[in-house]
Fold this sequence. Notes:
- This protein has two helices and three strands, in the order E-H-E-H-E.
- It has helices at residues 17-28, 53-65, and strands spanning 2-10, 40-47, 71-79.
- The chain has a three-stranded antiparallel sheet with strand order 2-1-3, covered by helices on one side.
- InterPro entries: PurS (IPR003850), PurS-like_sf (IPR036604).
Amino acid sequence: MYKIKVYVTLKQGVLDPQGKAVEKALHTMDYDQVQDVRVGKYMELIMEKSENVGSKVEEMCQRLLANPVIEDYRYEMEEVVGQ
């Protein structure tokens, strides 16, 4: 089995109103050293072991988990035992 950790973030240059709201809230709480906040998504998938796990994850990211027009994604894969 594999545990896949998928990280999805908005591309640079794409407006992130949620990130700006968090940044403003942090500033009102006197965390003035924060310069910029970008909000993203994190997902964990457990997948059966197969020869083409990486290509399947790429396909899932392109088709559903991320919007490739405005979002970037990356993933980490680790083999797990006993799940």
